[in-house]
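Technical annex, item 7. During the second reporting period the consortium partners agreed on a shared format for inverse folding records so that results from different sites could be compared directly. Each record opens with the tokenized structure and is followed by the designed sequence. A conforming record, contributed by the partner at site C, is shown below for reference.
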């Protein structure tokens, strides 16, 4: 059974999920001046009655505090081995990404095919497709040309 503080967190997230999600957007992309309409289009997904249970379980599972789905255990073990990625790859990072993330050098050796990492400058945060659509699309075009 989770400690009382965990239930308090779950209850708080349930009550304030819209405000919490907006805060996360602001922290992860501090220079992105999204408007309420843009946020509200995505925030509509938070009204799913299963949202809180799924989100809480996902974080607990990733932290090793909850069991995963037994039927996927073999797949999880294979993925945990971190197989080398052999296809051409471009990874992207915004220069103002406020979300927790590893340094590109920590995972670069996972790619055995043609690989490059691009930092997208200009106050770009965690949501690259919306904050830097041209750079994001260019990376897709570029990596497709490497096949």
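Designed sequence (site C submission):
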């Amino acid at each position: 059974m989770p400690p009382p503080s965990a239930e308090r967190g779950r209850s708080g997230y349930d009550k304030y999920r819209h405000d919490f999600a907006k805060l996360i957007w602001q922290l992860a992309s501090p220079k992105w001046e999204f408007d309420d309409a843009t946020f509200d289009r995505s925030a509509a997904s938070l009204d799913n009655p299963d949202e809180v249970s799924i989100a809480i379980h996902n974080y607990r599972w990733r932290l090793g505090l909850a069991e995963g789905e037994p039927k996927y255990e073999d797949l999880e073990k294979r993925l945990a081995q971190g197989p080398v990625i052999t296809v051409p790859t471009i990874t992207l990072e915004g220069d103002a990404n406020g979300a927790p993330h590893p340094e590109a050098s920590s995972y670069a050796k996972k790619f055995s095919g043609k690989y490059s990492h691009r930092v997208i400058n200009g106050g770009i945060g965690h949501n690259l497709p919306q904050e830097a659509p041209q750079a994001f699309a260019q990376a897709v075009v570029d990596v497709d040309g490497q096949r």
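The chain has a mean pLDDT of 92. DSSP finds six helices and two strands in the chain. All partners now use this format for quarterly exchanges.
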